[in-house]
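Annotated sample (chain length 256).
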Amino acid sequence: MTGFLPFCRKELLEQIRTHRLLVLAVAFLLVGLGSPLIAKATPDLVSRFAQDDLGGMELVIVRDPGVREALLQYHKNFAMLPLLVILLNVGAIALEKSRRIAPMALVKPVSRRAYLLAKAAVPALLTLGGTLLSASGCLLYTTVLFGEVDAAGFALANALLFLVLLFYLALSLFGSVIAPGVASAAGVGIGGFALVSIAGALPGLDDYTPAGLLSGVADLILGRATAHLGAGALVTGLATVALLIAAQQVLSRQEL
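Output written by the structure step:
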């Protein structure tokens, strides 16, 4: 693919110059480090507020937080990151089309396929780095505050969470290709997120959507049966590839 590597370097510099890399790193780091701390502090905060609000009555937390509570908090916080991925990447192509930057880039020996794949590959690698950063922070603080974490299960959970983020990255790029501007591309991305979330709440579909896969990770952390986890991961992976192929097909026929 002509021009893929040079365009990847250009995209990486763009991520740095626009501070998207910094925002991504800070958000992932806060999720990783903050989740065990929140789990540790929540019982004390609940008891203090309950005592203040109930006229001297004291709410007693029967069970102290542990590894499971820290990982569940990590999962809850991580579940907000798909929206961040959408917002950071939804203008990747739409903005360049509206500013007439894309035609200038494609005048050079850069194929449209290489252009799209560079737009996908660089954020995907940065998202992978962010996931590893978040997971490392959570693993470190959870081990220090609560004890040993099942490394294999935690690694599997993070691999599935990363797969979910890849889907939403592909969704944001698809919206960025089909939409004429950044605002409409954001509408496609956020609207798609809402539709996937609704589908994930429907009986019969919940186990076979990215939203259902996200819920399945919580079941994995809790040690519940996860019979449909593999199917959910397969559907999410196939949907990610399908979105990128659809985006490439549309982009190849667009007049820029």
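Annotation: The mean pLDDT is 86.
Annotation: Residues 4-32+67-253 form one domain.
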